[in-house]
Amino acid sequence: MKINQFSITPTTPQQRRQELMMIRLLRKNEEATLTPNAMLETLLARIHMASNQPIITKQWLHDLLATPDLALDDWLDKQEPLTNSIFYLIALQLLDFEVAVDFDITDPLTMIKKTGLPTEYHQQWTTTNVIDAFYLLLNTHGKNGQSLIDHLTAEGFLAWTYQLPAEQKPLYFNGKPLACFDPAKFIREVVYIETDMDTDFDGKADLVKAEIMRPRESDDDLSVPVVFTASPYNQGTNDEWGEKATHNVNVPLTHKSTDYQAPKEKSFSINFAYQQVTGHADHATETFSTTPAYTLNNYLAVRGYAIVYAAGIGTKDSDGLQTCGSPEQTDSMKAVIEWLHGNRRAFTDRNSGTEIKANWCNGKVAMTGRSYLGTLATAVATTGVAGLEAIISEAAISSWYDYYRENGLVRAPGGFQGEDADVLADETFSRTKRPADYRRVEQVNNQYINQMSEAMDRKSGNYNDFWDKRNYRHNLANIKAAVMMVHGLNDTNVRPSNVKALYDSLQNSTVINKLILHQGQHIYINAFRSLDFSEMVNLWLANKLWGQDNHADDTLPRVLVQDNKTPETWNTYDHWTAGKQQVYQFNDRRLTTLPGLGIQSFNDHQSEEKYREWCKDPHEWAKALIKDNGQFSRHFVSTPVETDTLLRGTPTVTLRVASSKNYGMISARLVDLGKGKRLTTSPVLFNRNGLELGYHWKTDDLREFKLQKSPTTYKVIASGHINLQNRHTPAQVDNLDANQFVSVNFDLQPIFHRLAAGHQLGVIIYSTDYEYTLRGNEQIEYQLDLSGCQLSIPGLSLDNN
Questions:
Q1: Is the dihedral of CA 102, 121, 557, 23 positive or negative?
Q2: Strand 580-587 and strand 751-755: pairing?
Q3: Which of 162, 174, 329, 653 has the highest CB neighbour count under 10 A?
Q4: Packing angle between helix 36-47 and helix 54-62, nearest 10 degrees?
Q5: Are strands 306-310 and 224-230 parallel, antiparallel or unpaired?
Q6: Contact 356, 210 (CB under 8 A)
Q7: Is residue 695 part of a domain?
Q8: Is 574 a member of any domain?
Q9: Phi and psi at residue 337, in whole multiples of 5°?
């Protein structure tokens, strides 16, 4: 077990004492009058939440060990000097580590070192040492994924703060707001924000519904910041619609004309009327009970942040159509921030014209969320909208072409073969949840979806005007908000190329940015045992939204990466790509520094039985690809690396290739070859509902990656695909003749991977990818001219810089 903490920010001795007094753990003159042991006993008694009766506290102390042979109360009675071993034996128990299970009671310091817990060691402990070490202990994460102060808070340690006047809140501890806001008294309200568009052609400006959950104190002259999640899923989904709309992928690739152009997307009406204001209200008239919530937002809510959810245009109780990543969808979410910042109108309901302002908001907003949610956070940030101070974009798309297409090919996100922009629009068009409302826009929506299907162009897979409108990378220079990027290195849904493009662009700007790369797929990481992610976010947002001078930008690492070899290990770096670039030539079946010679070929066709089996279960195809002896792929393998080697950056494959048809596609996979126990594909559940987010409030499931029980012989670490007719750009179609050798160069997904000593790097070249591409099962012979084939990997390094 290893615990990694990056949110503990530097404080002065004076700050530490002020904060301990603020939370009623330390009182004046105690540092000068109490012995070290008495100070420790006093602090322990004050964090005991079961009872404030001395006899109950003594009973609790009697059940804690101070030494292998002495209960804590007995040790205190003996008045023996405090030592490092005694203090940290007590600390481990307070942090919920189990004696004789998690650590040896005769050697607690070894456990402390192994786990990576922050410590203060002293040859002779003073009262001052006890106070400083206890402050650090309160900020230390325990076995169950929480800092001690948060664990105590969940038990009611700070319940008294609920009664504090609004002007005394929030309370900050180590630069972060504490959970001192009563969730039982949250204000829940609904407003309807007016946009500058009419996407359902009804002649009226679209209204967007927003659901707000904010502290009671925000009605008592405490201006609070907002954490806003833009989620098109928030008001419900049409799963059956999505299934019916899913496209058939078992179709052949075809030759593309060089002058083919897909039809453009239809423009929306610019002639519409705004609602007339008939009055003003200080309070909303509509409320809600529950809404689909992100647990990180629940964590932040009791720490004083107002939480806002909006599903945007084309969703239940809002106007408009679902446009899947378009500028209009971005603007509908931007409108929410403009209202919160005081620059846009909203109404208490859809029809009365009663205007309402966000007078409770301090005008500062952050956006959070994963996948589509994080995508819209990125999109809104590229508008440079005033009031948006920070975004935490997790597994976010930066170009929708890279989500549904690749290098002139239709390419599905992992696990969703046949999905496309029109399918996602159908799935999230939750206006269907209000039947009469749906009937009023049904015909308009059907027409729009049909036009979308044509404009997105599954026929060619080319980059076109439709995708260009959904490419946020054009406007990355407009970002003013601080950006925290979180992405899974094994995410095959929103692939890492999306975050790499955003990250690379921000390195040339003045925008504050942080990057966190984990070993998961398409997941959240705020409930990991090994990382204090929620506290990192709380520290960062305290700086960006509350204006706390808490050294957040200096405290949090620039690049934080979860190691793929050692469990529960997170390393800090200055950059993503670094180190020496290595170029491997394809030489026979090897990756070497010597150029290869000759022609190698493979055939993409399978028996009908095998084809149907693999279409039904693409994972079986993936396993067969690794074992293939040259029938439908070619394999090239390096010599084993002598020491652990970091691969950091974007691998590039260059091929000289020919197809027996006048069309074709080539795919490549980069593989770590070598026997060993690797991390589980998904995080393992440690404790269901075991992570308490506040006192009498929500919970989350504690999770973590573990080593697999059995060793495996390989792991795919990157892949890429290209249409041979798009060998220059995804927007440009080149002619191709049968058996014509052409040179293609394409990127694989970016990586940050530790190749263990003794392992080999492998490249597999093939055509149809049953997990991602169209699957035509055609008789196509591909030839590779090895003299023009190579793999380039930047970032080969042996260090952690």
A1: positive
A2: unpaired
A3: 329
A4: 110
A5: parallel
A6: no
A7: no
A8: no
A9: -65, -40
Helix (H, G, I), strand (E, B) or coil at 40: helix
- pLDDT tier at 801, thresholds 50, 70, 90: very low
CATH of the domain at 776: 2.60.120.260
The answer on 189 and 120 residing in a single domain is no
Tens digit of each residue's pLDDT (9 = 90 or more) over 621-646: 999 999 999 999 999 999 999 999 99
DSSP classification of residue 269 = B
* The pair of three-digit structure tokens given for residue 83, joined into one six-digit string: 């030592």
**Residues with Cβ within 8 Å of residue 26, at least 6 apart in sequence:** 17, 20, 43, 131
Both structure tokens of 776: 């035509």
Cβ(115)–Cβ(72) under 8 Å? no
Q: Say how far apart CA 520 and CA 487 lie, in whole Å.
A: 8
For residue 59, the SS3 value is: helix
Asked if 653 and 668 touch (Cβ cutoff 8 Å), the reply is yes
Which residues neighbour 80 within 8 Å (Cβ) at sequence distance 6 or greater?
A: none
749-to-200, 488, 498 alpha-carbon distances in Å: 38, 12, 9
CA distance 92 to 1: 13
pLDDT, tens digit (0-9, with 9 covering 90-100), for 340-399: 999 999 999 999 999 999 999 999 999 999 999 999 999 999 999 999 999 999 999 999
Select which of 200, 206, 491, 747 is catalytic. 491
- 482-488 and 513-518 as β-strands: parallel, antiparallel, unpaired? parallel
pTM of the model: 0.97
CA distance 46 to 168: 22
Active site residue 522: yes
Distance from CA of residue 53 to its chain's centroid?
45
Query: Residues 304, 162: one domain?
Result: no
Which residue of the set 7, 147, 371, 460 is catalytic? 371
**Count of domains in the chain?**
3
CA-based end-to-end distance of the chain: 25
**Residue whose token pair is 């499931």:** 701
Question: In this structure, are 199 and 87 located in the same domain?
Answer: no
Give the pairing type, strands 306-310 and 207-214: antiparallel
Domain boundary, last residue among 120, 155, 176: 176
Alpha helices in 23-147 (DSSP H): 30-33, 36-47, 54-62, 72-78, 84-94, 108-115, 127-138
346: buried, middle or exposed (CB in 10 Å: 19+, 13-18, 0-12)?
buried
**Do 638 and 588 share a domain, yes or no?**
yes
Let me know the angle formed at the C-alpha of 51 by 50 and 53, rounded to the nearest 5 degrees: 155
Q: pLDDT digit string (tens) for 716-742?
A: 999 999 999 999 999 999 999 999 999
Q: Half-sphere exposure of residue 16, counting CA atoms within 13 Å on the CB side? A: 19
| DSSP assigned state of 264 | P
Whether 572 maps to a domain, the answer reads no
Nearest-angstrom CA–CA distance, 534 and 692: 12
Q: How far apart are CA 461 and CA 550, in angstroms?
A: 48
Listed in order, strand segments (DSSP E) in 311-360 are 346-347, 354-356
Do 112 and 195 fall within a single domain?
no
Identify whether residues 663 and 745 lie together within a single domain: yes
- Asked whether 102 and 93 are in contact (CB, 8 A), the reply is no
Distance CA 778, CA 303 (A): 59
DSSP-derived 3-state class of residue 149: helix
CB burial of residue 216 (10 Å; 0-12, 13-18, 19+) = middle
CB atoms within 10 A of CB 123: 7
Domain final position from 126, 143, 176: 176
Percent of residues, the chain, with pLDDT higher than 70: 99
Characterise 588 by phi-psi region: left (phi > 0), alpha (psi -120 to 50), beta (else). left
- CATH code where residue 473 lies: 3.40.50.1820
Residues 516 and 634 in one domain: no
Cβ–Cβ contacts within 10 Å for residue 676, how many? 16
Question: Do 539 and 650 belong to one domain?
Answer: no
Quote the domain boundaries for residue 124: 13-176
How many Cα atoms are found within 13 Å in the side-chain-facing hemisphere of 94?
31
Phi, psi of 343 (to 5 degrees): -110, 15
